[in-house]
Amino acid sequence: MSNWKQICRVEDIPVLGARRVARDQGLDVAVFRNDADEVFALLDRCPHKGGPLSQGIVFGQQVACPLHNWTVGLCDGMAQAPDEGCTPRFAVKVAAGVVHLDADELAGHATELTRPIAGPASRKTACS
Amino acid sequence: MDMRVTPRQKMKLVMVGNGMAGVRALEELLKLAPDLYDITVLGAEPHPNYNRILLSPVLAGEQTLDEIVLNDWAWYQDNGITLHAGFKVTQVDRVHRTVNATNAQGETVQAGYDRLILATGSDPFMLPLPGKDLPGVLAYRDIADTQAMIDAAAQYPHAVVIGGGLLGLEAANGLMKRGMQVTVVHVGEWLMERQLDKVAGQMLQASLEARGMQFRMGAQTSALLAGDSGRVAKVEFRDGSPVSADLVVMAVGIRPNTQLAESMGLHVNRGIVVTDTLQTVTDARIWAVGECAAHRGIAYGLVAPLFEQGKVLANHLAEFGIARYLGSQTSTKLKVTGIDLFSAGEFMGGDGTDEIVMSDPAGGVYKRLVLKDDKLVGACLYGDTVDGSWYFKLLREGRSVADIRDKLMFGESNIGDVGHQGQSKAAAMADSDEVCGCNGVTKGTICKTIKDKGLFTLDEVRKHTKASASCGSCTGLVEQILMFTAGGDYSATPKMKPVCACTPHGHQAVRDAIKEHKLLTTGSVFRFLEWRTPNGCASCRPAINYYLISTWPKEAQDDPQSRFINERSHANIQKDGTYSVIPRMWGGETTADELRRIADVVDKYQIPTVKVTGGQRIDLLGVKKEDLVGVWKDIGMPCGHAYAKALRTVKTCVGSEWCRMGTQDSTQMGKDLEKAMWRMYAPHKVKFAVSGCPRNCAEAGIKDVGVIGVDSGWEMYIGGNGGIKTEVAEFFVKLKTAEEVLEHTGAFMQLYREEGWYLERTVHYLHRVGMEHIKKKVLEDEANRKALWGRLQHALDGEPDPWFEFDKAHVDTRQFEPVTTA
Predict the structure, then answer these.
(1) Of A36, A50, A59, which is closest to B536 when you measure between CB atoms?
(2) Which of B357, B483, B574, B593 has the most Cβ atoms closer than 10 angstroms to its Cβ?
């Protein structure tokens, strides 16, 4: 049973672009829109080095990660061969031009994954 | 009513032949359209597809048969391909579209087809000599021949190889390594005359003689005579004494195997005649690929062009219908361990060509480079072939070598175009040595992957190993390794490199089309040039967007979704998804007021790192995307474009205003240049520097444009680069006034903006078009210089600062706020 929650209108997402959906717990969910007005949702995290996929270039049914240009499939979250890896998917429903995500998934799906740490904070981790 | 859509009946695709070219085509097809066909393959040999090129190392005992299998039995099964190995096709009925085949046991199979690929390869040419059918007389073509040769070497002492070409010498070398005494009979004056000139051919012969190989040069064989056992025992010549032979290998050439095609009534002329789409000219249901096909009169015998053909064929079978095969350049490398020779192109020279020759027969090194109109058109190397891949690249690219002509002979390492740590010779590297410093890939890993995965192109190596896939500075090394590991058959990228996999067109063709046909949107470029993908990819979209706005300023509209994130968010993304912000400090000068505002911003937004950059500016690192707009506004300084393919910094020294050595006001010159040209998008990032005296404290020698003040005016240098590979800028012109410096810099920049390819730094642009070209356009033609400078000023006039004028700069501000679902 899906517990759909309204997120935004399809037009709120740029064509061949993405928006980030903030969550109480865990990383953002990236919602993508391609030029056929299909909408996809993935955890906003590349399986390679954790880059925010929402910031990548969208083409066809794929997105290129902004950090190292891995190509990730929007339908399945799979990295394109020969790269290997997968980013968690989120169920999406578009009804009457409104994008919905599953509230239960938003609350609890893939909340354990984090972004890499950068800056002085990363030095502390390295020393401890 | 049942409304379910039934899946379309799959078409039946039958391939006659199970060799490298055909199977590669199927692999490409499966990538594009995995479910379009039911595929049946009929192969005459009782083996899965193997790497025919590596039969020589197998014969020489350096590899085993198992090691050279490219697609094992499971591959066919996994891909749903029905393989009839060991079945020779006897008849094709084009009316009923059936293929009949028989194996050695007399079993028959029949397969029906909707589409048919002929990949029948080639047959060795057997000289019509008396005795050619005797036991012990072989060709050298397949696993069975190789095995027969290995068996013979175990039993008999004497072998004769007829034919001193590539294949013959590899066979002779292998038999010699297996302990036979080998005589090579060659009708020509020197060995490998189709690949080598006389000097190199004679050096090769001397080297092989030193290993114990014997030669009969200029000798014509008249008969092969049997001994008592009925097996061949002697080779007789028109003149001269006969030679003992328990094994005779004929390696005098191959000819396209067109027997079947002829029996089918297909047009055959030195091969099965095909069009640029590899379709036979006779029957639209039938394609031919590989050594059996004659494309524009040429049947290729090397694997690289055949793989290119396979790609084109797959594209059409997948019903994409856009690829064309336009012919290939080929190169040759002999696979005899310890002997290095390489040749490519018109190595014999001819009318209108110049030659650069280096000959050291005693040292075993000989190099001949053939040039025509300042372009490399041929190369023949013996003894030292490390630069073969580099010469081949220059040859394919057809770029002018005028600027490096004096150093050309001394190789790539001499002009510094190599990898890190001064490594220039892949062959000298140990397996554990790192080749790609960005991705930590060793030579051993690359070699192993090339062998294991059967890789033949630089792109494939990049995909599978990541070597040279990031900064690209080790590309030359990786190409060398590829050439050494895969042999001369490694596939060089075609002469004209496509922008990306979405199109066969190169950067120049795209630029030209946009200009000539006044294309103003990415969509119109895709339509006009028949892009293969609906909206391109992350490689071509940014390039096209740049070409549009640089060709048609004020007319073409910038498309932020076709820009990389940095140019979309106007800040530089960091590994944790935060951004860095670098405000512009004209000429590297700042004030207490600016510094105070920066300090306040750092406190207010809790920015974790503040760093002084190499370009005399201040970098704020770790800014959250949500804070970018506030940070820009609070700092109140112009955008530094430190994230963009655009003018970045203008580095200056203090200059005559303060410095006791200064001869010119370099800081003011730098500010003037920066104010005139900031907001200028370019094919790649652009950096300037201005020094006030020849001590050059601003390091102007490694900038795209470097200006150095001297007592009598300014010296201008272009094409420097301090990055991946340090490139010293070349002297361009000496000027008297600051106005002239502005005009010349602007004109050069505009020329680069109009002619450069996306992601091509000025140094690479300069190498591609040549200094003469730039001098002609900017120095010698005053009117053109002024026009260029005028066009740049027009393009920059009224350009917005993206940190403040969001609408005008097409900044989608929605990106700065996440969608909240509270």
Answers:
(1) A59
(2) B483
Q: Is B695 left (phi over 0), alpha (psi -120 to 50) or beta?
A: alpha
The helices-and-strands tally (H runs, E runs) of chain B is 23, 36
Residues of chain B contacting A, Cβ within 8 Å: 463-464, 470, 533-538, 541-542, 560-566, 568-569, 573-578, 608-609, 621-622, 812, 814-815, 818-821
Contact between chains at A60 and B534 (C-beta distance less than 8 A): yes
Closest CA to B482 of B502, B501, B454: B454
Q: How far apart are CA B403 and CA B764, in angstroms?
A: 12
Nearest by CB to A12, from B566, B621, B814: name it. B814
CA–CA distance, B251 with B165 (Å, rounded to integer) = 7
Check if A17 contacts B (Cβ < 8 Å): yes
B646-815: same fold as B564-644?
no
The mean pLDDT value of chain B amounts to: 89
Mean pLDDT over B648-661 rounds to 95
Q: Indicate the pLDDT class of residue B63, thresholds 50, 70 and 90.
A: confident
Q: Kindly write down the DSSP assignment for every residue of B298-345, as one continuous string.
A: B---SHHHHHHHHHHHHHHHTT-----------EEE--BTTB-EEEEE
**Which superfamily is assigned to A4-127 in CATH?**
Rieske [2Fe-2S] iron-sulphur domain (2.102.10.10)
**Measuring CA to CA, how many Å separate B262 from each of A110, B254, B521?**
63, 17, 50
User: pLDDT per residue over B720-762, tens digit each?
Assistant: 998 877 889 999 999 999 999 999 999 999 999 999 999 999 9
Q: Whole-angstrom Cα distance, residue B442 to residue B429?
A: 10
- 93-122 in chain A: CB under 8 A from chain B: 101, 106, 115-121
Distance from CA of B113 to the nearest CA of A (A): 31
Tokens of B463: 């995909």
Helix (H, G, I), strand (E, B) or coil at B600: helix
Q: Which residues of B598-625 are buried (b: 16+ CB within 10 A; e: fewer)?
A: beebbeebebeeeeebebbbbbbbbbeb
pLDDT band, very low/low/confident/very high, at A126 (cuts 50, 70, 90): very low
Best B561, B574, B816 member to test A by mutation, with max A CBs in 10 Å, is B561
CATH architecture entry for B646-815: 2-Layer Sandwich (3.30)
**Are A66 and B564 an interchain contact pair (Cβ–Cβ within 8 Å)?**
yes
Is residue B488 predicted with pLDDT exceeding 60? no
Q: Using alpha carbons, select from B421, B417, B382 the residue that is nearest to residue B397.
A: B417
Q: Where are the domains of chain B?
A: 11-123+256-317, 137-252, 507-563, 564-644, 646-815
For B564-644, CATH number out of 2.60.40.10, 3.40.50.740, 3.60.40.10, 3.90.480.10 equals 3.90.480.10
Whether residue B43 has pLDDT greater than 70: yes
Nearest CA in chain B to A114: B576
Angle formed at CA B560 by CA B647 and CA B674, multiple of 5 degrees: 15
Question: Which CATH number fits the domain B137-252, given the four candidates 3.50.50.60, 3.90.79.10, 3.30.70.2190, 3.20.20.140?
Answer: 3.50.50.60
Q: How many CB pairs under 8 A join A and B?
A: 109
Please state the separation of Cα B302 from the chain's center in Å: 17
Q: Is B783 exposed, middle or buried (0-12, 13-18, 19+ CB in 10 A)?
A: exposed
DSSP states along A21-68: E--SSSSPEEEEE-TT--EEEEESS-TTT---GGGSEEETTEEE-TTT
Superfamily of domain B11-123+256-317, CATH level 4:
FAD/NAD(P)-binding domain (3.50.50.60)
CA B703/CA B822 separation, integer angstroms? 51
**Closest residue on chain A to B534 (Cα):** A60
Residues B622-646 have a mean pLDDT of: 97
